[in-house]
Every structure is written in structure tokens, then in C-alpha cells.
Amino acid sequence: MAARGGMQVSAWNLPRNPILVKCLRARLRPAHLFTHGLISLVVAAFIFLSVYLSTSERGVLDSELAARAALLPLVILQGVILMFLGTGAVASGVALERDSGVLDYTRMTPMSTAAKIVGYLFGLTIREWYMFALTIPFVVAAVVIGEIALQKIFWLYLAFFSSVILYHLTGFCAGMISKKPRRANWGAMIWVVLLYVFLPNFARTGFTFLEFLTVRPTIYGMVQEEFFARMSQWDQAEMAVRARQWQEVAFFGTTLSPLVFTLLVQAVACLAFLLVITRKWRQETNHAFSKVGAMTVFLLFQVLLLGSLWPIFGTPHEEILRDPTLPEAGMQVFHSSSFFGAWSPESTARSPFAAGLLSARPRVLIYVFFLLSGLLALLFINTTTPSGPTYQKSLRRARKHGRADVPILGDGASSLPAVLVMVTATALSYVLVMWLAHRNGHLNPPGLWEMAAPFLLFATVLLYSQALRECWGARGLLLAGFVLWVVPAMVALILLAAWDEAVTAGWIATSSPLMAGIYVVEGLAPSDHEFAMRFAAEHYPAFTRLALGISTGLCLIFLPLLRRARARIRAASA
Amino acid sequence: MIATRDLRVDYGAVTAVHGLDLEISEGEIFGLIGPNGAGKTSTIRVLATLLEPTYGDVLIGGHDVAEEPEEARALLGYMPDWAPVHDDLKVWEFMDFFACAHGLPPADRKRRIAACLDLVELSSKRNEFARNLSRGMKQRLVLAKTLLHEPRVLLLDEPASGLDPRARIELREILKELVGRGRTVLVSSHILTELADFCTAVGIMEKGRMVVSGKVDEIVRRLTPRKELIVEILEQDERALEIIRSDPRVSDVSGERFLEVSFDGDDEDASRLLARLVSSGVKVKAFHERRPDLEDIFMRIGAREVS
Prior knowledge:
The complex is a heterodimer of chains A (about 575) and B (about 300). With about 575 residues, chain A is mainly α. Chain A has helices at about 20-25, 30-55, 65-100, 100-110, 115-125, 125-145, 150-175, 180-200, 215-225, 235-245, 260-280, 290-315, 315-320, 335-340, 345-350, 350-385, 390-400, 415-440, 450-500, 500-510, 515-520, 530-574, and strands at about 250, 255. A two-stranded antiparallel ribbon of chain A has the order 1-2. In chain A, a hairpin with a 2-residue loop joins strand 1 (about 250) and strand 2 (about 255). Chain A is globular and about 70 Å long. The two termini of chain A are about 45 Å apart. Chain B is built from 11 helices and 14 strands. Chain B has helices spanning about 40-45, 70-75, 90-100, 105-120, 135-145, 165-180, 190-195, 215-225, 240-245, 265-280, 295-300, and strands at about 1-10, 15-25, 30-35, 55-60, 65, 75-80, 155, 185-190, 200-205, 210-215, 225-235, 250-255, 260-265, 285-290. Chain B has a 6-stranded mixed β-sheet, with helices on both faces. In chain B, a hairpin with a 2-residue loop joins strand 9 and strand 10. In chain B, helix 3 (about 90-100) crosses helix 4 (about 105-120).
């Protein structure tokens, strides 16, 4: 008897997607429709009416501005529903199905992987989409009464939905990776905070693209005047700066609309999550990233880093010093009111503290460039490096197929070649950045050694981390990272805080790349600050040499260890 | 229909399945027996394409599960041992989901769902929430789901665990009916008597290895070349022991009134032994051959430890 072939539903035929229909039945029964609908309606009505009536009825604002004022709180409510509740629903829903085993049933059905992903992505959040839909009438009221341009609403919601999909994919990914539903929910929340709250703070240093992981640049750059109906003078000045900052995004030699750039950056992030989800769908035991996937995402990340640094280092340093609010300079950190009180470009230019910060900025940018590249590379090292048994398993399969060793890009292969590709890509970006920075007067390393030191530190740290991960596993890497990177930094901080032992602290901290990074970038452009300059000139070259000596030494210890471990496995599998 | 060659499954440093060779023909019910942890579930999960084998070839209907998982899946129906269900769905919704997911044409769906629920006798529960079903009912519901797309190969991992005796008998009848319809069934269990009655062949696993496999009678013959005769006498009688021990085909005797005799002869020889006992005045109450069952075989080959 033949197995039945069947009619397969297209991934994009949402109303007929079996997973979506299943979730619709399970998560939107009449009881849910009533309770969740009621909650959503009441909260949305309360927000709209309280803002609108409290301002219009008291004559604080006319009805048009009052309606506009209600729009932002409504969008925040929608964000809470879709981004917060929805992300949790996806993460815990997927993890729950995996944990119970019912996901295996779905895995075995002949639906396409795309149809399964789309089904779960929209199915598990169907209740949240329903709650969101019930807030729409109030948004429509705000738009109609507030006479808000429909085009701007379209832009806003395009960026909003793109962010929602990104957040939901984050939750999906957490659900596919973590074992326990509760852990998945927390994992998703941690990822959301990390990626969309913590990481965008690096945008303030100049890596503006990180801010575009959120919907904020679109709001500030394109639709803020629709939201902020009534502002103080200070607020207006702040808004004007933000608007100037985000109205157009400098990327390489061109400028893009914040909406386009948001969609671009979020597409890269979505791609990364989709790669993980697809691989985990196909086979639970697959690494989260393939070697090719990890290298692709890393290269795209390098393009984004480079694209953000390009306009900053492409603008002459003197020009930036004259006008630090240049949009292409990405200078948010330098106009924060917490730094300068009532901010103005003139006051910034006059402040010696601000001037100090401005001169230190190129070094900070290089430090953050290597920090972000390193963090992503470490993430990929951890997700693409095989354990000993995985290597052995792949070796056996390779030999079954008549190969002498595992395919270089297979899950069982060493991640060393992939790390070398990432190191090379970073080297190319760095060379371009240095060329541009040197040409425009941002950095002036006295020699090749000073210029190469930051990269050498980066490369050696990644190489010994890879070897460590492959020899001792994730726990070994974590432990070594804690002992070599975190503990010395802590000891150094105590020495510094308690006894002002700056030199001893400096020596101790050299094994930590987080601290050593500070020493090595100092050589790129000596500090303007008199004391800092003296101290750096006196000690940082020695600290740099020791830091590089330690990381090179660790490479020389762990790379041969790795070779020996692999040879042992090969011999055992022969 | 199902074949594994030198199958190995490792979990880190632990080897769950070691060099497993298996050949199951179409229309067979193959019982995979072994204590908990013997490697049955790992074997079935590999066959179901849900676990990558460390090594070895696994073929379902001629398709390599590692190279052509989609083709293999099209032939498979898999029921895991804990039989999870979507608790927040009604029975018919659960079935409808899988009917749609397997791409059954809309016109066929209702008929197939009704037929499968009928087969597992759950038609009366079609509007119940799955969470309200008993463990046995959930098992039957998952079995019904497994049958929806009429798979040619059924992989059933401990399908009777948690079922009451009546439900076990019903399950056995369902499986017999399925094999009657030409399905190939691989069913695992650690309850030996569960499988002995209806499996056409069995395999006993221990520490990840297949200790013995084949038709039940063949295995019994292979592993017990000597007959075991039971001679029950009314009162203790030394003559009985003397006569039995004097028979050259008897290798061992134990007991006093209930004698267990290890006997290397055919039925003719056995009847001659009985005749000698009776003619010597021994009061024989019962004289019969004890046929070892799977449990005896299992204990005999010492499959007690787990991997």
C-alpha cells in the first residue's frame, strides 16, 4: 500500500497554513476572544481617552494636538502587546512543544520548513495579533482627529512590524535552542534586552546601525512631530538634534532614509535568526549556525560596522571638532544633557571635557569596533565549534563515504578555518578604517607596530579562544574567560580603587582583552590629556607588549593541544 | 522495508546503540525487546529521522534516512513512548491538524479522521479536549494520528506502556489488523509478554547491541536445543529419579515431586520415558514439555543490565 502523497500548502498561504489554523483553534477560543479582547479594548480606550480628553477638555491642547499626543502611548501599548507578550508567547510556545515532543510530529509532516516557520511565527502570536487589532480603532481615531499624514503612519508601522517580526524571531530562536519552556521565555527576554536595549547604546559611540535594531530612529527621524505635540523649549532643541541625527543615515559615502536603513539592518538580523531556526528545524542536533552561515552573518556585520565608521572617519577631524553635531558624525553621546547640562553645539565646542571626549573618540571607535567584532566572533566560535564526540561522529560518517577527513564546512569540522576567515575580514575592515582615519587626521599611529597591535590582540585572542573551545568545550571556554579576562580586571579595579596602584593594576589587567584593548588603541593616537598622556606614554607600550605576549603564548599552548586532541580522535576512529 | 547496517548512536561519550543490524520485511510485526536504556528508543528515533545516527546505514523503503529524510518520512508513522498530544486542542482538531499537515485532500479528510478514530474507538470522544483524555486514550489518539496518512511503516515506541489490560488487548488487535492491511510495524516494549503473542519476529537488545533476533520459534529453538520436561509425581519416589537419570538423553534433573528434566530427545523418546516411569509403578500426575517463552529466553541470555 502506498503512502499518501498530499497537497502541500504554500508557506505564504496563511489562512490555510495547518499550524496557523491549529493555533487559531487552540489560542483563540471564545473565552480568549472575550477576556483578552476586553483587556485590550479597555486598556487602549483608557489610554486614548485619558490622554485625549484630559488635554482637549481642559483646553491644554486643541483636539488635533490632543489626538496626536495619544498616538505615542497607543504605539507603546501595541509594542508591549506584540513585542513583549508576543515574543514570550513564541519562545515559550516553541519550547513547550519541543519539550513535550509534539514538535517532532510536526517535524515529520511533509510541510515545507518555510511553512512550518511561518505557521509557528504567526500562530503562536495569534492572540497577541488579535489584541493588537483591537487597538487599531483608537489609532485610527488618533490619526483622523490628529490629521496625521497617512504616509508617515505607513512608515511608522512598516518599521514597527519589521521590529515585531525581528523580536518574534528572537523568541523563536530562543525556543528552538533552550530545553525548558520557562528558560526559553527568560532567554528570549534576555536576548531582547541585550539586542534591542543594551546593544543600541553602542550607537552613541558612532555605530549608528545598532540603533536601527529598534523602531526609535524611524520615530525620531521621520514621524516625531506627529507624536510630540507639546514640548518645552529644551525638548524642542533635543528633538531637533535627534531629528537631525536620524533624518538621514550616513552609510559609507551615501545617505539613506532611516526607514530603509531600519529595514536593511533588521533584515540582516532576521536572516541570522532564520538560519538558526531553519537548521534546528531540520535536525535538532545541528549547530545553531553552519560555518557558512556564521561567516556570512559576520561578513554582513563587518559591512555594517564599516559602513557606520566610514562617514565618521571620512569626515576631516577638524570639521567634526568644529561641529560635533554633524549627522554623519553620529555623535549622540556628546550631546547628552547628562554630560553638558542644557546642551547646545556651542557649549559642547567650548567645554574642555567635551573637547577631550572628542579627541578620544577615534580610539573609542576602534576599541568598540574590535569589541563588537570579537563578541560576535566569540558567539560564532561557541556555536560552530564541534565537541570531540561530534568530530568523531563526523569523522566516522566521512570515512563511510570514503573521505579521509570531515568536510571543511561541516558541523563536525574544526571552526578554525571559519575563525581565520572572520579574522581576515576584520583585518580588511581595519585596514580600510585606518587608511581613512589616517587620511582625515583622526588617528596618527607613530609606526606599524602601534597600528598592528590592536588587530594582533584581536586575532590572537580569537585563535586561542577557538582552540580552548574545541579542546575543553563551552564550559572550559567560559571558565578560562572568567579566570583570564574577568578576574584580572576585577583585581586591577580593586588595586586602583583602594591604593591608586595604577601601574600594578595595569600589569595585572593585561591578560584581560577588555583592558588590554584600552592599552593597544592608545598607541593609535596619544591622549591629549596631560596626565593621561604621561602615564600612557610611560606604561602603555609595555602593557601592550605583555598583553600580546600573553595572548600569543596562549595561542602557542592551545593550538598544538588542539592538534594533538584531534589526532587522538582520528587515531581512535581509524 | 526497514534495514539498518552497523548502526551506531552516540550521546557524547555514551554509546546508546552499537553496531545494530536489522532487516524487517514488508508486512512484518517486529518486536524490539530490551530493558529500559537498552537503546530501543534511540534506534526508533533514528529510524524516524529524528536523530542522526553516528554511523551506519539506515534505510526505510530503500531511502537512506540521513541522505533522504523527506522521502523516508513520507513512508513513516511514528508514535513516541510518552505519546504527547496538544492538550488545548479537541480530539477532532488534533486529527484535523495532522490531516492538513500531511496534505490530505479536503474531501478525504473527514472520512480518514472518522475511520482512524473508529479504529482506535475514540469516535465518541471527538469533541473532547485532549487534556481530558485518560493516558490510554491519549495513546490511542496518537496511534490514530499516526495512521492518518496511511504510512507503510509504523514505528511504535512502547505503545502499550500505561495502558490497562483491556486497552492492551485492544491495541494488540489494532496492530494485527494493521499488519493484515500490509503495514510493516516495528514495535518496542520492555514488557515481553506484550509482544510474544503477535510479533512475527523479535529482536532482543541489551547495552545497545542486538543480542538475538529472528522468528520467535526459531529463537526458542536456537537458544534452547534441549527440551525441558516437567514430570509431576504424586509422592516422592527414588525410583522416578533413578529411571530418569538412567536415560542417556537426560542431562540434568532437579526437584523432588515436581521434577524439571533437561532432555535431548524427540517426542518418541519422551513418550518412552513416560512409559518406563508408569510401568515401574511411579505415580505420574503430569508429564509435559515446558515451552520457553520470550521471558525465559530473555532471562537466559542474561539481558538484565542496561547500557
